[in-house]
From TrEMBL:
Pfam families: Acetyltransf_1 (PF00583). The keyword Signal does not apply. InterPro entries: Acyl_CoA_acyltransferase, Bact_Acetyltransf, GNAT_dom. GO terms for molecular function: acyltransferase activity, transferring groups other than amino-acyl groups. This is GNAT family acetyltransferase. It comes from the Bacteria. It comes from Chloroflexus islandicus. Keywords: Acyltransferase, Transferase.
Amino acid sequence: MRITIHAERPDTHDALALIEELEAELAPLYPPESQHGYSVEKLIAQGVAFFVVRVHGEAAGCGGIQLYPDYGELKRMYVRPAFRGMGLAQRLIDHLAAYALARECRLLRLETGTLQHAAIRCYEKAGFYQIGPFGEYPNDPLSLFYERRL
């Protein structure tokens, strides 16, 4: 199986499709005030490093990282249902961690929804542990916050 991960603008055709699928998956689960994901425009405006993972050239998932002075935050993590269970999310997390380390960032953080059970298992398996809200996130009962030292 040929798996590649490359930097890509979040407004490319494949990246837009992946982000739209992620939004469609989350929309029925959470009210608007509990959907904290960046829009494509904000990903670009905030300088989020964005990556697309491909299997045999087909876009299978995406994720990004926004670097702050004290940590890097994972953003817009998503793997298409047909590609789940192949370890792509872990590969993407490893790629984002390597990106952070190359920029002397030694701490990763993320926010995810309480109903994202597979994502929660993936993050915990990858060494993330639960923390309280960080940055500008509100204390939302539908959000979980995680970090991992690199």
